[in-house]
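Fig. S4 source data, part A: sequence.
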Amino acid sequence: RSSSRPSTPLSYRPPPFTPSPPVMLGSIYHQALSASSAIPTSPALSAAAAPEARTSQNPLQRLAGTFSRRVLAAAPAEDAAKPKWDSRYSHGSIVHDTNYYLKCMVGGILSCGLTHMAVTPLDVTKCNMQVDPAKYKGLVSGMKTIAAEEGAGALLKGWLPTLIGYSMQGMFKFGLYEVFKDQYSTMAGEENAKKYKGLIWLAGSASAEFFADIALCPMEMVKVKIQTSPHGTWPVGFVAATSKMMAHSAETRFPFGSVVPLWSRQIPYTMAKFYFFEKVVSLFYTRVFTEPKDSYSKNTQLGITFASGYIAGVICAIVSHPADTIVSLMGKPVNKGKGIAQIAAETGAKTLITKGLGVRILMIGTLTGLQWWIYDTFKSAMGMGTSGGK
């Protein structure tokens, strides 16, 4: 008997199941609903949707509108979560963290303390030329006069307070400069930090020197008093001289009586020192040594550092010399109790600007070049690279 059911070929396969439009829309609806539920609701945007508009839309339209608004509301939060540019992490593989800054402080101690101590004979002669220009008329003749009257050892008077004081100053000068430079660059932002880097160098160096001079002041006062007092009128030994400064603090104004003249001398000096060093070393690497910095040997890089430091030092000496003369004159017995303005008026502008300037240029130029060389040598030995350039 024949079957009423038609025969089906063995190779036949039923077509794949395709959901009807209502099923597909329902699936999309549920997927979109679950995705949108994870996004925070914006109260302002939710309140902005009028009830009349919601009732005129079908469920899918309302869902699509809500989903879009919530995505847009969440976008600013994602932008705000973007990490802020930080100058400390903009120096290639070398991160400027606490360990980096501490190493810079050690480098500053070595660079300033050792170099200032090394030029003590020049410093003794320069101070006496400023205090008594009629007697000490030149570098060589001044050194001969001091050695003849007090012995050759007198040219080393005040070496210990010099070493201690300028080591403290160097620690804050170089260490805090790196801290403030990174801090001000981060505050300015990446674009402005590049655009106004000169101002950042000036602000960073001035801020660092403010604190460095407070650390320097007590030992600077002891040093100047030892070096400029007539022979036999003041103790030359460090402990005895410091004790007498403390005992007569009403007269000597120890320990911070000279901090204002120091600020007036050292802050312009340091601003010039760091600004012109950064500027000159940058010019060297962009105009003379135009290959990538890493392609030059460490000796070449350190040679560039010294030359840049020496040029900057000459400018520093000229800028800070008048204030340096006043600091020296404050230690003179006849100026005891006098104010800065009175000392300056009695001395005269020409003497303040020119007397001892040649010696100071020689001393500060060499000093600054050596300071940057020692500082960069230490940084290089610590794997921190040399200063300037890219």
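Fig. S4 source data, part B ends here. Residues 19-26, 35-50 have pLDDT under 50 and may be disordered.
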